[in-house]
């Protein structure tokens, strides 16, 4: 195997570790403290949409579980197209949600993560994964 291919696979592994870590961290936080996390991350616009459908606490709990699942799949490199597509959609939703209030450093960080998830979606998980 050429050195360039090994470096590319290692870079994909590092990118997967970073994205998975973010999803696992925020997913666990949302499951452990859905009320507190909802107060931080749910904008008034989204809160008014959720109001008639589901409580913010329940939404954050469900979103946390989804984030944990996405993080685990990305980390393992399993069901990779589905996992990275879900990651990109979730991150785009976060960018739109938070960007509707203010363009702050969190919006720019999550936009960068969104583009990283898209890169993995198109490039694949690399050699160091369950799915090759």
Gist?
By secondary structure, the protein is mostly helical. Helix content is 80%, strand content 0%.
Structural class: mainly alpha
Number of DSSP helical runs: 6
Question: Strand count, sense and closure of the main sheet?
Answer: none
Q: Considering DSSP H and I runs of 4 or more, what fraction of the residues is helical?
A: over 70%
Q: Tell me, briefly, the overall form.
A: elongated
Task: Estimate what percentage of residues fall within beta strands.
Answer: under 5%
- Flag low-confidence runs: none
Distance between the termini: 15 Å
Order of helices and strands: HHHHHH
Radius of gyration: 16 Å
Q: Give the overall pLDDT as a whole number.
A: 92
DSSP, total strands? 0
Instruction: Write down the domain tally.
Output: 1
Description:
The chain has 132 residues and is mainly α. The protein has one domain (3-123). It has 6 helices and no strands. Helix 1 (3-32) crosses helix 2 (34-41), helix 4 (56-76) packs across helix 5 and helix 5 (80-99) packs antiparallel against helix 6. The radius of gyration is 16 Å and the shape is elongated. The two termini are 15 Å apart.
Write the layout of secondary structure elements.
Blueprint: H1 3-32, H2 34-41, H3 44-51, H4 56-76, H5 80-99, H6 105-123
What descriptors fit this protein?
mainly alpha; 6 helices; elongated; 132 residues
């Amino acid at each position: 195997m050429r050195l360039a291919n090994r470096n590319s696979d290692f870079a994909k592994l590092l990118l997967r570790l970073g994205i998975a870590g973010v999803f696992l961290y925020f997913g666990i936080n949302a499951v452990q403290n859905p009320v507190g996390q909802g107060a931080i991350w749910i904008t008034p616009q989204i809160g008014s949409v959720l109001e008639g459908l589901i409580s913010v606490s329940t939404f954050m709990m469900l979103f946390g579980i989804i984030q944990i699942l996405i993080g685990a799949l990305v980390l393992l490199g399993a069901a990779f197209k589905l996992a990275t597509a879900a990651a990109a959609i979730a991150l785009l939703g976060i960018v739109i949600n938070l960007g509707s209030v203010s363009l702050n450093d969190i919006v720019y960080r999550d936009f960068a993560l969104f583009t990283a998830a898209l890169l993995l979606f198109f490039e694949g998980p690399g050699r160091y994964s369950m799915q090759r």
